[in-house]
Design a protein that fits this description.
Helix content: 40-55%
Shape: globular
Radius of gyration: 20 Å
Strand content: 15-25%
Oligomer: single chain
Number of strands: 6
Number of helices: 10
Structural class: alpha/beta
């Protein structure tokens, strides 16, 4: 294949071509989904079935966009006031147009208020962090891991500050400190590899900032140490498994309690 040739439109590409392109690069979220359920991965990344966004996803995206604006303003040396942040959040809520949310009557305003309360809570509880200039904000990075025989790793770092990688998350429940590191190891290891590959330095640490959607919202910060050599080996092994298993094109369901909230539940029930 001529690498300089223009790629055909997605609808004209064969399933085999799509799988081959998926083998060439992988992100933490893509890898995680493949390990969770191969059939769901197939529907989302191979068939590219479009589904309406959930209210929770819309809130999360809007909050994330507002916090990106807040961090970028600090990076530029022009911090946002609370009113400016509210304007950024309102604009993000209106601008985010990937899919549509089937809102119930009155639900949109309620969820919009919930999202803003999370933003407000974050700014009020982030402490001295607000006075520190970020190293990077929402930067797309990649790592060529061909020397390890692995796909190219891609990702977006929400925030890097004083060498610490920070990732924003919204949650409906308080994260369990004893399980957070295990549940997010794949993601934070991916970010560490990306950071080291692009800076030539070792991260000072990783922080997960969970904004919890309670009656009284709160910010839960989980401090994690730099990635260990063992964690890097585990990530590389999973990436190798992804490449090899994806090439077999065997997509099957993995039934679990998570299926009840899956957007492809109907398609899965009709799977043959």
């Amino acid at each position: 294949m001529n690498p300089t040739a223009e790629a055909p439109p997605p609808q004209e590409r064969s399933e085999k071509d799509i799988i081959r392109s998926l083998q060439e690069e992988v992100s933490a979220s893509r890898l995680s989904l493949f390990l969770q359920c191969r059939l769901k991965f197939y529907y989302r990344y191979v068939l590219r079935l479009k589904k309406p966004k959930t209210a929770s996803l819309h809130v999360g995206n809007s909050v994330h966009a507002a916090l990106k604006a807040w961090s970028k303003a600090r990076w530029l040396g022009k911090p946002l006031s609370l009113r400016d942040l509210h304007d950024a959040y309102t604009k993000a809520w209106a601008d985010i147009s990937e899919g549509t949310v089937p809102w119930e009557t009155g639900e949109e305003e309620e969820e919009k208020t919930t999202g803003w309360r999370l933003c407000d809570t974050y700014i009020r509880q982030c402490g001295s962090m607000a006075t520190i200039k970020p190293d990077a904000v929402e930067v797309s990075v990649e790592a060529d891991l061909s020397q390890h025989g692995l796909p190219r790793l891609i990702g977006i770092l929400d925030l890097v500050q004083e060498g610490t990688i920070i990732d924003f998350k919204t949650s409906s429940s308080t994260p369990n400190p004893s399980s957070v590191e295990h549940l997010h190891e794949l993601q934070v290891s991916s970010y560490a590899v990306l950071y080291r590959h692009n800076t030539g330095k070792k991260e000072t640490g990783i922080e997960l900032h969970h904004l919890v959607k309670l009656k009284n919202p709160k910010l839960c910060v989980t401090d994690l140490p730099p990635m260990t050599e063992q964690q890097e080996h585990r990530l590389f092994h999973l990436m190798d498994t992804y490449y090899e298993e994806l090439g077999r094109a065997e997509f099957y369901p993995s039934p679990s309690f998570a299926c009840m909230g899956c957007e492809f539940f109907g398609e899965c029930r009709r799977w043959r």
